[in-house]
């Protein structure tokens, strides 16, 4: 059997697993959510964000679909509403403090807060073998700082419950610290970012700031950064580190807010130029699974295909 045939066989088996899992109903005891459970999805107008919104609405939650472009967001919401789903739209630019504030106030006024946050909004400007850093500033700001902005703004609004509130950050294996083919070459920095005792917001921010400064002065190519989609990989490395750190801080402070990240895989969406090898439905699956997982005392972990993977 060729490698392509084996990959196809694995993919078909995975699709069967996903279909089977969706046909198994949650028991009343496991089903902790209801139509009053409020979930906010950033970047929900297309791709993985749209599919996460759809699947969670099908499961019976109230979904607040957000998008920077109001027309695109309203159109996506209309499509889901016409399917009988409980989805509402609110404009959101994750890099605009006023936009984030307006969403926060609206959630508080209309729903008393939220239960689940899915940070999906992100950008990537490289395709195929490209590795340009022309838009590195925008990539890092959107993917890392936008995620960070939303978490900091939404934590005070997250509703207390016995099941715990949840935050799911859509990330990537490209941001793994110890990946075999696309990791930081700076061993000391890798160790610092991998050690929860030394990990801090200042360290994460300094790491991305150093990268952006080296992009600006043209020295980034010899500085040991990940070699594939470098700006995107650095932004997701920061998201992964921030997820681990926030899980620890929230736990230490006694909050029942569980935060995890996951890699959706190489998905056929606009971000990959539709060159991925799995559908948006498959890419959304682990995010939906994490959002609805009955025993969600799991926090600070990294997942792919419903399995924990190493950072």
Automatic annotation (TrEMBL):
GO cellular component: membrane
SUPFAM superfamilies per the UniProt record, alphabetical: NAD(P)-binding Rossmann-fold domains
Top-level taxon of the source organism: Eukaryota
Oxidoreductase recorded as keyword: yes
Pfam families, alphabetized: adh_short
GO molecular function: oxidoreductase activity, acting on the CH-OH group of donors, NAD or NADP as acceptor
Keywords associated with the record: NADP, Oxidoreductase
InterPro entries in the cross-refs: CBR1-like, NAD(P)-bd_dom_sf, SDR_fam
Gene3D superfamilies: NAD(P)-binding Rossmann-like Domain (3.40.50.720)
EC number, as in UniProt: 1.1.1.-
Protein family membership: Belongs to the short-chain dehydrogenases/reductases (SDR) family.
Identification of the protein by name: Short-chain dehydrogenase/reductase
Lineage start: Eukaryota, Viridiplantae, Streptophyta, Embryophyta, Tracheophyta
């Amino acid at each position: 059997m060729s490698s392509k045939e084996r990959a196809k066989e694995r993919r078909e088996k995975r699709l069967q697993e996903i279909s089977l899992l969706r046909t198994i109903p949650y028991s009343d005891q496991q089903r902790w959510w209801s139509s009053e459970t409020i979930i906010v999805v950033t970047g929900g107008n297309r791709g993985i964000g749209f599919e996460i919104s759809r699947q969670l609405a099908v499961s019976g939650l109230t979904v607040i679909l957000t998008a920077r472009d109001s027309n695109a967001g309203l159109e996506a919401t209309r499509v889901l509403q016409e399917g009988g789903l409980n989805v509402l739209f609110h404009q959101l630019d994750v890099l605009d403090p006023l936009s984030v504030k307006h969403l926060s106030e609206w959630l508080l006024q209309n729903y008393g807060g939220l239960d689940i946050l899915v940070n999906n909004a992100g950008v990537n400007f490289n395709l195929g073998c490209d590795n340009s850093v022309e838009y590195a500033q925008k990539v890092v700001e959107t993917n890392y700082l936008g995620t960070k902005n939303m978490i900091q703004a939404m934590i005070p609004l997250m509703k207390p419950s016995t099941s715990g509130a949840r935050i799911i950050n859509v990330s990537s294996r490209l941001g793994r610290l110890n990946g075999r083919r696309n990791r930081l070459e700076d061993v000391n920095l890798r160790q610092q970012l991998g050690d929860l005792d030394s990990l801090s917001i200042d360290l994460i921010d300094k790491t991305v700031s150093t990268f952006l400064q080296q992009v600006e002065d043209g020295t980034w190519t010899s500085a040991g950064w990940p070699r594939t989609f470098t700006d995107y990989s650095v932004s997701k490395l920061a998201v992964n580190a921030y997820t681990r750190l926030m899980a620890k801080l929230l736990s230490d402070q006694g909050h029942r807010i569980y935060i995890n990240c996951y890699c959706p895989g190489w998905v056929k969406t606009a971000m990959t130029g539709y060159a991925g090898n799995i559908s948006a439905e498959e890419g959304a699956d682990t995010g939906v699974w994490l959002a609805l997982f009955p025993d969600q005392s799991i926090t600070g972990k990294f997942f792919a295909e419903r399995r924990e993977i190493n950072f």
